Every structure is written in structure tokens, then in C-alpha cells.
Amino acid sequence: MIEASELRAGTAVKLNGEIYSVVSAEYHAGGGQFGGMVFVKVKGLQTKHVKELRFHPDDKLEDVELEHKEMEYLYADGAEFYFMNPDTFEQISLPKEAIGPYERFLQPNMRVPVELFEGTPIRLVFPEAVELKVVSAPPGLREHETATYKSVVLENGLEVLAPQFIKEGDIVKVEVATGKYLERVRREGRKG
Questions:
Q1: Is it true that domain 67-124 has CATH number 3.40.50.1000?
Q2: pLDDT at residue number 173
């Protein structure tokens, strides 16, 4: 059992005999005689219906154990994203809604953990940061070498602000949630 106050996006719960995946959960503090409430948006795994529910923070819900499996991203056809189990070569698909903002960071042959319930894919468990190659970067301004940022384009088409010393061909680490530059990745055998 899990308390409503512990619900997070991606948690799977059983409500009225049906399995739901939590899309979002927000706690709102109460005031005076009114206690706090947890507002939860859930999506049915079988029906794909989205519901908005309200719980008291200490309400108990039946949580469901999910299987974690590393899958290899293959391709997308617009509505579905296809992944392959590298051990069995079995292919599964996830709808575009289950991928959400992570879509722009998926690269072919990239291995990402997928959560499954009884063999049905629920969601992608994306890393907090990804490494991408810089494909376009204007020359740096020498007098502002580290204090100012410039706009660079990454291999997935994302445009980020990066320090002046970043150049084409560099590999940079980008935070997935915000799309912000974190650092330049140094490779073995490379100077600079």
C-alpha cells in the first residue's frame, strides 16, 4: 500500500480493479478546517482513459510492482515509438503520449529502461541527462571566453546555450527535464 502523499508520476496503482499509471500528482496544503489534498491525474492502462482524482494525503492506495527492462529504441512512425528487447528481439511500442517531452532526446539504438506491467509497456524511465554532439556552433568571442553563452545546435536539432569554448564536434551533456547545457564531455585520448 502507498499513501496518496507519496504518489509520483509513473507510479502504478490499482483502483476499482483497474491498473492506472500516475501522470501527475500535486499536493495542495489546506487551511483552517480544511486539510491538505493530493490532486492526481491517472491514465488507465487498459482503457487509456485519463481521470483526475482527489485524495487526502494519508489515504491508502494499492500500488502495483512494475518490471524494469532495458530496451533499445528503434524508430517512430508518428503515433507510436518502437523498442526492442535486446535479449529476445521482441518488439514493443509506446504511444507518443507515454514518451512526452523525452521524444527529442531519443536516438536510434539508444538503450533506455522501460517499465512494464505484466508485459505491457507503461512508460519510459529516461536518464536525467544525455550526451549529444554539437553540429553547429558559431566561433567564440575571446574577450568573453567563459562569462557569456552562445547558441549551439545539437545532433537532435535542439538549440541550447553553451559556453564560448564549445565548438562543432564537441560532445555535451544536456539536462533532459530543462534542455539546459550541463557540461562538455571529455573523451579518452582527446586533448582540450
A1: no
A2: 94
Q: What are phi and psi of 140, to 5 degrees?
A: -75, 155
Answer for the pair 179, 165: CB distance below 8 angstroms, yes or no.
no
Q: What is the pLDDT of residues 23-76, one digit of tens each?
A: 888 888 877 777 788 899 988 877 778 899 999 888 899 988 888 889 999 998
Q: What gap in Å lies between CA 158 and CA 131, rounded to an integer? A: 12
CA dist 84 and 128 (Å) reads: 22
Between CA 162 and CA 97 the distance in angstroms is 30
Domain spans in the chain, listed from the N-terminal domain onward: 2-63, 67-124, 129-185
CATH class of the domain comprising 2-63: mainly beta
CATH homologous superfamily of domain 129-185?
Answer: Nucleic acid-binding proteins (2.40.50.140)
Residue with cell 500516475: 22
Q: Which three cell numbers stand for residue 43?
A: 491514465
Same fold flag, 2-63 and 129-185: no
C-alpha to C-alpha distances, 15 to 8, 42, 115, 187, nearest whole angstrom: 16, 10, 19, 49
pLDDT at 142 over 70: no
Strand-pairing partners, residue 132, are 172
